[in-house]
Amino acid sequence: MNPPPERSSRRRSRLAPAVLPAVAALLVGCGGDEGATAKDRPDQLVQISDGRRLNFHCTGRGAPLVILESGYGAGVNGWLRVQPEIAKTTRVCSYDRAGYGFSDPGPLPRDGAATARDLDQALDAGGLEGPYVVVGFSAGGLYSRLFAARRPGEVEGLVLLDPTVERVAPSPAVDGLQSLRRTVSRCLATAELDPTPPATDPRWSGCLPRRGTPAEMTRLRPAEAWRNQLSELDEIYSDTSAQVQRLGTLLHEVPIYVITASETAATSPTVGYGRGQSVWELEHLRLALSSDRGFQRTILSSHQVPADRPEVVVETVLAMVTALRAGKPPEPLPVSETAPPEGDAAFPESPR
């Protein structure tokens, strides 16, 4: 396992001001790309045991199968800058969790155990066999670990992108989480009253993606979908975190790459717990050290790693795939990045 990286003192990257992302941005995943083609229709609808269907988008050929687990509020369209590149080397699937995109809503609560169970059943029902490398972004890092615990021996590697950590809850000083919850609650109330107004109706302000496709707009209106999203948000720092904590050392033999965004505390204080970047990075290092073959790297990025640094995501995933194909332990990650010279852009601006 690599030791904490030595860094020279770095000047702050020139980033957009820290603001709470609109729910509209969250719903298109913030990992998409204006130049990429959003999915405007379901791809492969997989029926699971209770009759619900989950939408999967699978491309490429080869093993291991890479599973992309999105952050809160995102789905297939959150990986538009990443999936095509991974598909050049191996098979890769993104999917919409229950209540997102083209997947049916699920029973409440929408905690991590429910999400991992849905994925487990869908892979079997869809004939999507392992071995697997699971890539989890943000809250998807929690779901990825819970899924890995359900498939011992089949999940051969985890790549966690600025993952939410179960160990620390947001600081009470940061009201961003409550602001987000109020917004989602308002969207739910709007849907319960009347889900039919056009997307331009002011009642949907902050609820629907500005660049969403017509099909996305339609799918986001039902109240059931909003109930799923509100439940998921409530569970992240309660039951979902507790479920991950109970895993203990169960995943210590699974190789883990952890990518930490350098500016999470500045650009996404809700995600970064409002406790400072050093705490965020320390928790990620601890997560890497929980594996016998874990490595952590800090990169110049906002929290939206799939959007800001898709090339790093692809490079890291393929490094894991290459090692597993060769039957070798994964190599240490490249050294952590430091800030560029004053005035240089640290990374492309995230699409909003």
Query: What's the N-to-C terminus distance?
Result: 36 Å
Q: Approximately what portion of the residues adopt beta-strand conformation? A: 5-15%
Strand order of the largest sheet: 1-2-4-3-5-6-7-8
Provide the succession of SSEs: HEEEHEHEHEHHHEHHEHH
Number of helices: 11
Low-confidence stretches: 1-35, 341-352
Per DSSP E runs of 2 or more residues, the count of β-strands stands at 8
| Broad shape | globular
> Any idea what the CATH architecture of the domain at 30-176 and 256-326 is?
3-Layer(aba) Sandwich
Helix percentage: 25-40%
Cα gyration radius (Å): 19 Å
CATH superfamily of the domain at 30-176 and 256-326: Alpha/Beta hydrolase fold, catalytic domain
Main beta sheet: strand number and arrangement? 8 strands, mixed
What is the SS-derived class?
alpha/beta
- Mean pLDDT score, rounded? 83
**The first-level CATH class name of the domain at 30-176 and 256-326:** Alpha Beta
CATH fold group of the domain at 30-176 and 256-326: Rossmann fold
